[in-house]
Amino acid sequence: MLTNLQARDVETLVHPYTNLVAIRETGPLILERGQGVWVHDVDGKPYLEGMAGLWCTALGYNNEELVDAAATQMRKLPFTHIFGGKSHDPAIELAEKLKEMAPVPISKVFFTNSGSEANDTQMKLVWYMNNALGRPKKKKIISRMRAYHGVTIASASLTGLAGNHNDFDLPIAGVRHTTCPHYYRLAEAGESEEEFATRLAADLEALIIAEGPETVAAFIAEPVMGAGGVIVPPKTYYPKIQAVLKKYDVFFIGDEVITGFGRLGTAFGSEAMEMQPDSISIAKALSSAYQPIGAVMIPELMYEAMLTESSKLGNFGHGYTYSGHPVAAAVAVKTLEIYERERIFERVRAKIPQFDARRAALEDHPLVGEARGKGLVAGIELVADKKTKHQFDPKLGMAAKCVAFCQQEGLILRNVFGDAVTICPPLVISPAEIDELFDRLTRALDKTLDYAVRENLL
Ligand code: PMP
Questions:
Q1: How far, in Å, CA of 362 to CA of 357, rounded?
Q2: Disulfide engineering: 272 pairs with which of 51, 67, 90, 266, CB 3.0-4.6 Å?
Q3: 257 lines ligand 1 (CB under 6 A)
């Protein structure tokens, strides 16, 4: 029986990434307020937000400094755009700070409202650059199976998940997907991580050659795949991939939308993964999700090409009304100040051993095939048979069941492709709360196991 608010919800809202039929019966969980790493529903029940919302609320749910930064900017100048020669202090300060923090040499910053828009912009900038460089055929972009880069037409095409393509008539032309770097599922018997990485680089090279290197413009990758199931690439992966990209003059786009700002214990995930992208997409923790904002960090080579091309055309014809929105930019500036002042990334590093130990221990559970992760992000893959790695029928939705049991236990997690449950708490989670998170998840896994036994699914 739906509550009044739930009934009003299902009569009016189309929810993103939701089973549109099931929600009409169950109604949504309606949240009302937050405190630290906790959120409360309308009945006052607290939940540990083990996913930081959608991998984004790095500083938790009641940071007054961020609220003040927004309110102050709103009172001063709630909006001005940065088109056609206008600007404002928060956008300038934020761009300066990002250039300073970037893990690779960055020349300029272009602001967006989201990660999807950042990756869309990346694709357009690569095309624009190659037109300027006089190689109009070099336009294809290579992504990876199970990558997640967003949902706009271009970024959903880069995403390597069937659910984002089927019946949306995607991917668009000129996008290819190479092998997913998932050792647990895709390594051959006896193959070491290093050998697997060599094979993945060979797969990429074969694809570039098959397509024609003169047609391949860029490769895009998340340091650690997020929504595709938290896939940590095998050792030596990026150095080997980067050697191939260099050989064929293929631009490297880093998608740090999840891994940017401390998630892996370093400011950027690139630093933790021996990854040296040419350009970088960011969003989410850039503002700790208190305001929607994303950005593309642009290297000098690309900027020079943009100058050339736009001077031919008289204008750089790309930008969003809210690119560099002053309130979002002011909140992001404050967020970066807090990361630095509170030494948030260093404190994340101190929490990793405990998080790692609790994560690894989950592999003792009868339903857990692989408990993988890096830093404060993890993917727990459920299997029907640990020895054979045999999965449950996807129609059974076992990871979704587990997430529902988590919710009963007062823990919010998410289920993603490949029957995995993902964990990505706010960076400010305390050691006691890390234990609480894994205790609650373990109880939910036990309930999932009881359910599987009861229903004869094993
Ligand atoms: N890239 C990555 C790596 C992401 O995880 C996401 C969102 N989960 C996006 C891009 C898209 O970001 P947004 O939802 O803000 O458009």
A1: 9
A2: 266
A3: yes
ipTM higher than 0.95?
yes
Q: What spacing in Å lies between the alpha carbon of 150 and ligand 1's midpoint?
A: 5
User: How far is 285 from 289, CA to CA, in rounded Å?
Assistant: 6
Q: Rounded distance, CA 61 to CA 214, Å? A: 48
Encoded tokens for 317: 């014809």
Amino acid identity, residue 175? Answer: V
The fold for domain 66-341 equals: Aspartate Aminotransferase; domain 2 (3.40.640)
CATH class of the domain comprising 4-62+343-454: alpha beta
Domain ranges of the chain: 4-62+343-454, 66-341
CB-CB contact of 198 with 120 (8 Å):
no
- pTM of the full predicted structure? 0.98
Residues 276 and 223 sit within 8 Å (Cβ to Cβ): no
Strands (E) across 87-193 are located at 108-112, 140-144, 175-178
Q: pLDDT tens digit string along 95-146?
A: 999 999 999 999 999 999 999 999 999 999 999 999 999 999 999 999 999 9
**Distance, CA 369 to ligand 1 centroid (Å)?**
26
Task: Report the candidate in 129, 292, 144 with the shortest Cα–Cα distance to residue 226.
Answer: 144
Number of helices and strands in the chain (H, E): 16, 15
